[in-house]
Amino acid sequence: MMTDEKFVVVSRFASDAEAEIARGWLAERGIVTLIEGANAATMLSYFGSGVTAVKLLVPAGAVEAAEQALQEFHAASSHGQPWYCAQCCENNESAFDICWKCMRPREEVGSSISPFSGQSVADFGQPLDCSASVNQYHPPTEPSADLQTAEAALVEQVEGDINRAWRSAVLGIAIPFLLSLYSMNLLMSSYYRSVRVSASGRQKRRLAWAFNFLTIAGWAAHLSYSMVWLGVVSCVGLWIGLASAGQAQPADQRDSVQQQNPAYRQIEDQPGLPRVLLIGDSISIGYTLDVRHLLQGQANVHRPPTNCGPTTNGLKNIERWLAIGGTDKKWDVIHFNWGLHDLKFMGPNGENLIDPDSPGSKRQVSPEMYEQNLRRLVERLKATGANLIWCNTTPIPKGAKGRRPGDEVAYNEIAARVMTEHGVEVHDLYEFARQRLGQIQKPRDVHFTDAGSRALAEQVVEIISLRLPQ
């Protein structure tokens, strides 16, 4: 697996046990996987499944194959039948291809029929009685050396966790809450991994629980009510952090999973070239790299490392965006737009991109507020002394989610009035796109194809080139 390959989330599970089963299913089909948030989900499950979320990630190039495999996995889990292990007499759910108890493959020891009374496994509400010394359906075999080694390693790991939990419980008398909760985390982890612990290990585990409860109860008795709650909140945060750290991925894999959009990458100015700032939403993000490439050697092209969103977001962040590269540097050209995020419809409780005709829906920024905000933004941009180019909002096609076709025309008219009053040049990207929507825009979507974004970039470069200082 290449460490610089990007990983993406393909599914979420309520527990790491479910995620591990799905992970094994994908591994059998040659798909590399990562699991994120396993230990945190295990602990949070004690507070209710609604707060857990274990993520299953695969390389970006394997998403389609993984999704197909997961569909098969869910179908097998939903419609398959439980099966009986002829080796250890254990019931197994349909999603298991390996007996969870004896680790034997289903194709070797699996049967849908129980040897008792001719009943199927599904007829038994409790695990089967396997008191017979010899299983007539499958002769006893010794586990493989690899299996014995793996089991021994797991037992050793669990015993080590119990020893650490015991020591932490004792030290927790002097350092309460933090070490006590860390100890309890290790103890719960030892229960979760189904291995047989030695007698001394079980005794230490019981003593560790007793020490932890007595320590927390004793110290809590000396604290005020408010301090108790403050300690609990702090310890729960540390508890979750420790669990997450236990399953932390290597740094290079984490960076791959969280890799930013290349358009957000900040560049170093090439001395002697004019500085250009692009401000806009996802439409401008789509053409940023092409603009940067086409103006290579002619201008240093920057953009904020984010979707600039509506005008309300612009007012909050404009100073930070203008300071990109250093407050001592000036901008020669600023090409800017706001609109698609202003006119989109939101729900009464903040739901994003809802049906414009649904009850309680409203535009994120009304036309009146849009005009007021735009005036303030233009006045601030004019103060930079840069050549300003307003790029009007591109078309909204029929069927686009959370937006009403034609609203962009009304908002563009408002913007045109503001730009005329302030003497700002208007780049009519709306009309350019409208004349060729079927060729460059995605169906029922405000966004553009890769070829469409390149076509928009060429138009942006053309107008910016005319305003660069010679």
Rg, Cα atoms, Å: 31 Å
Please count the beta strands (DSSP E, at least 2 residues each).
Answer: 13
Tally of separate helices: 16
Rounded average pLDDT: 79
Q: Which structural category do the helix and sheet elements fall into?
A: alpha/beta
Spans of at least 5 consecutive residues whose pLDDT stays below 50 are: 40-52, 113-129, 131-144, 243-259
The profile of the biggest β sheet is: 5 strands, parallel
The termini sit apart by 49 Å
SSE run: EHEHEHEEHEHHHHHEHEHEEEHEHEHHH
Shape: elongated
- Helical amount among residues, as a percent range? 40-55%
Estimated share of beta-strand residues: 5-15%
Q: In order across it, which strands form the biggest sheet?
A: 8-7-9-12-13
Which properties best describe this structure?
470 residues; alpha/beta; five-stranded parallel sheet; three-stranded antiparallel sheet
Task: Set down the secondary structure blueprint.
Layout: E1 7-13, H1 16-28, E2 34-36, H2 38-44, E3 54-59, H3 63-79, E4 83-85, E5 91-92, H4 106-109, E6 110-111, H5 145-171, H6 178-192, H7 199-220, H8 225-246, H9 251-257, E7 275-279, H10 282-294, E8 300-302, H11 311-322, E9 333-336, E10 345-346, E11 362-363, H12 367-382, E12 387-391, H13 407-422, E13 425-427, H14 429-434, H15 437-440, H16 450-467
